[in-house]
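User: Last request for today: this protein with oxa(dethia)-CoA, please.
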Amino acid sequence: MKKVGIIGVGEYLPKKVLTNADLEKMVDTSDEWITTRTGIKERHLAAKDEAASDLAIKAGQSALEDAKLKGEDLDLIIIATISPDMQTPATACIVQNALGAKKAICFDISAACAGFVYALTVAQQFIARGSCKNALVIGTEILSSITDWKDRNTCVLFGDGAGAAILSEVKSGGIIASYLGGNGSIYDILMVPAGGSKMPVSQETLDKRLHFLTMRGNELFKIAVKAMHDAACVVLERAGLKAEDVDLVIPHQANVRIIMAVAKKLGFTEDKIYLNIEKCGNMSSASTATALCEAVKEGKIKKGDIVLLDAFGAGLVWGACVIKW
Ligand code: UT7
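Assistant: Here's the final one, the structure of the complex with oxa(dethia)-CoA:
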């Protein structure tokens, strides 16, 4: 089995920024509530003419430049998203065409906020077994397109963005362990009820606003803390490492209180946790993807560092991986 690592990263955040003060004018909320309950101050929103693929293409181009590769060098493109351009074809096909990645296999993964970790792990298998050389993995979301802007319980949480990574064979280090899990018994805790085959679009579903994300947030909070804690423990054990060996944690950015509760349980100090939730909100699969990219670009991850990615989301699904940079 070949060693597989990340050789380039990129991100794209849409230009428009929606602040908590803007939200105060839209729903019955306050900057104080949003900040203290979630850690979010602002989030980026895609323009009307931007689709998930547009964000992904920009993030992908940036990652290709970082890796000093061209689209034609890619053998595989995996897009993690719950807000694809359309139900079919896969958003990965649209990205493949735009990047000129003619020989790349392309498909999407629906694993919500754990999507980027799921996609990294799948891409790793292709390269480790020698069936692909270079893979592009992107978490891209336009959550604003499935957010109910009249529901204060959810609309203050989400944002839009894309983060990308190029995976290839490396001589040392790379992804040293990963762990994915799921529990479909509580699939309805966070979902978009209508618009699929179970409840196709109708006037009634539109009137009932069933095409937007619904969430039992309070219930999910506790489950999230346990899922992220357990995933980190399993993956660290698989890697033969302890919490103190980790140089930087890139957690899913759903709520700063969830992240800090997990960090406390695992014994991580705050300086070991990378956060971009304050300026980006929760971008589902794009959260870990952009946070990883930003941490690299800011010099917070250096050669030889041990990085822990840890995410959970709708499904429920969770995933974690340990990367030696
Ligand atoms: O990405 C993966 C999935 N997402 C998550 O894992 C999210 C997990 N859940 C959370 O992050 C938190 O549960 C939330 C941020 C969603 C909510 O925070 P909370 O501390 O759990 O609040 P709550 O739902 O218990 O609500 C507390 C109060 C309620 O009022 P009452 O019943 O106490 O009078 C809500 O109606 O806060 C009220 N509330 C708000 N008030 C002002 C709910 N949303 C808002 C709001 N502004 N935006």
